[in-house]
């Protein structure tokens, strides 16, 4: 921060963090019990898989244009709509007792979730000015990452506590009510975001896809692939490894998940000590570091719980660094569109990784499958650094002043 420059006033950041915390709390509470809800209603495995697949497909369809809708019609408006639709989906899912309304709830959940993603951060980052911009954007994204990770802790804890006196479907219903309340409060909690009335959604999508296909975003896109692979291995493998080592006690799994979620939040918080002016170095380093304890724990060279917690900490660090990097690269005018297109790439990698890992696990065993995907993640992450130096434009952050920003943008910034 420059001498004499007043620090960003905290209220807007606090509201941003509270909304991130609340939304993730509801999401984790739902995620912890929705399979149980479906099985208790007599849903057979085939129908369960088909229901999730349908909702995922609708979510993917919503993800691609969701960012362009936010940039076109305003981030606050789409945030509110997304949270209400997402919450309505949870509420319907929790209330339903037949397949048709359950499916409708699942579709609303997926569509609403993907409509809201990226809008909250875009609302706040777009109010950061040009002075000390790198540090300010890094601070905003770090607050969001830490709040989201703590929301995961709160969601898991709420299920453990409230689950003793609330049924699983009522927990889902309560999560939906929380999201609807957040959606209705969003217009009161956040400043207006007028959008770009003269631009079409299709035009924004074409513009963003062309930008991401250019050299400037190559290292960022490659980082998405490597970081997503490391994350997928951790998400898939921790439960089978814990079950093999300690048995299948679900309560113990809950304690492990709480510890891992806290480690994820701690890693995100520690991103403040990294140099955000060089994310092309720190983010791939964080990706590579995440793979090491996972590899050692899989082969018994490191105690399993130590390896999982350490990997989760390093993953939280890498994800926070990446979040700051991408928002420093995106323009204010197309921030949400660029975010959604990049998220779509990540979702595609997730789908491919799940398919490949399942085949490799069955063919070679879990340790070898983990080693193969982690090795691929390391190789991809290692390619980011030479790519960043081969394409110098990929190391230049977006500058709203140079891009013809408004007088307000050229001031110290409007983040409160």
Main pleated-sheet profile = none
CATH superfamily of the largest domain, called what? MFS general substrate transporter like domains
* CA-atom Rg in angstroms: 21 Å
H/E series: HHHHHHHHHHHHHHH
Mass-distribution shape: globular
Q: Which CATH first-tier class of the largest domain would you pick?
A: Mainly Alpha
Whole-number total of structural domains? 2
Strands, count? 0
Structural class: mainly alpha
Low-confidence stretches: 1-10, 404-416
Tell me what portion of residues adopts beta-strand conformation: under 5%
Terminal residue distance: 15 Å
Write the CATH architecture name of the largest domain.
Answer: Up-down Bundle
Q: How many helices? A: 15
Helix content: over 70%
In CATH, the topology of the largest domain is named Growth Hormone, Chain: A
Mean pLDDT: 86
GO molecular function: transmembrane transporter activity
InterPro entries: MFS (IPR011701), MFS_DHA3_Transporter (IPR053160), MFS_dom (IPR020846), MFS_trans_sf (IPR036259)
Keywords: Membrane, Transmembrane, Transmembrane helix
Transmembrane segments: 16-39, 45-66, 78-96, 102-125, 146-165, 171-190, 217-242, 254-274, 281-299, 305-325, 337-357, 369-391
